[in-house]
Design brief:
Length: 285
């Protein structure tokens, strides 16, 4: 049983998170054709014309129409390809006509005129993020979570013996990486450099990856030491999962994006673990 105050604290924290919304995108491709007599076809395009299929700016897209294009990892198609019919200058099939491709923005028509030699059609397809709901009970999470480190933004500090250790470090994630939970304001320079959620990656220029926590703590207790930290990308992923999670459709690499219909995008794993410590419920990936 969870005490009532833990329930209340959990719900207060959850209220501070945005509602989880699926990411939706519109994928587009432009089809180009030229006329010869009364016939339209891509084979009539000249070397100075755009390619048969282009992007919005006319740059090359795909060689053929992407009828069987696979959705990106983590997304799914909402519908089949269809001509965009929102342009008031298009005909019933989505075509826009003009004397040349250069004039499609200035002298376009929804009907074929005697002066029109080219036509363009915009195809669109809806794409939406694919979320996998997964429930757990009590402390049986079923997945091991980890967070990616951004080593391009490393920062180093020196800790000397005559100063009280200014950082509170806690093990986080399935790899138990030492993470900054609190920075003392006694050293404003340090406070401005190191942030909550930063991860310890080096002690005295030696990587701590794979080092036992007790050994790291011994190094930190030395008269002085140089510490290197790196922020995370705030992208939490599954490193491993049990059989039940696998059956639910989860796998290594899935990104944790929500908890109880609240968004966890840009939320640190440190804070997610704090949330879970107050109440274990279910999340959505």
């Amino acid at each position: 049983m969870f005490p009532a105050e833990r329930h209340a604290k959990f719900h207060r924290r959850m209220e501070g998170l945005a509602h989880l919304r699926r990411q939706e995108f519109t994928v587009e491709i432009y089809q180009n054709q030229r006329r010869r007599g009364h016939t339209w076809h891509r084979k009539y395009l000249t070397k100075d014309d755009p390619l048969p299929f282009t992007n919005r700016d006319g740059s090359s897209s795909l060689a053929r129409f992407p009828k069987k294009l696979k959705a990106p990892l983590g997304y799914q198609w909402l519908e089949m390809w269809k001509p965009c019919m929102t342009n008031t200058l298009s005909d019933a099939n989505g075509w826009v006509y003009a004397p040349s491709f250069d004039l499609l923005e200035f002298n376009a028509s929804p009907r074929v005129r005697d002066i029109d030699c080219v036509r363009r059609r915009r195809w669109i397809r809806g794409l939406i993020s694919h979320l996998i709901p997964f429930k757990w009970k009590e402390d049986r999470l079923g997945v091991s979570l980890a967070e990616t480190i951004d080593e391009t933004r490393k920062k180093s500090i020196e800790i000397v013996a005559n100063v009280k250790f200014p950082l509170t470090l806690v093990p986080v994630g399935c790899n138990q990486v030492l993470t900054v939970k609190r920075v003392s304001k006694s050293d404003l320079r340090l406070y401005s450099m190191i942030s909550r959620g930063d991860i310890l990656i080096n002690v005295n220029e030696q990587s701590v990856n794979g080092t036992a926590l007790s050994d790291i703590q011994n190094q930190l207790s030395q008269p002085s030491c140089y510490l290197t930290f790196a922020p995370t990308t705030r992208q939490i992923h599954i490193q491993d999962c049990n059989r039940n999670a696998t059956k639910a459709g989860l796998h290594a690499g899935c990104i944790l994006v929500g908890l109880n219909e609240r968004s966890l995008r840009q939320v640190r794993l440190l804070d997610v673990e704090t949330l879970l410590s107050h109440l274990i419920h279910h999340f959505i990936l």
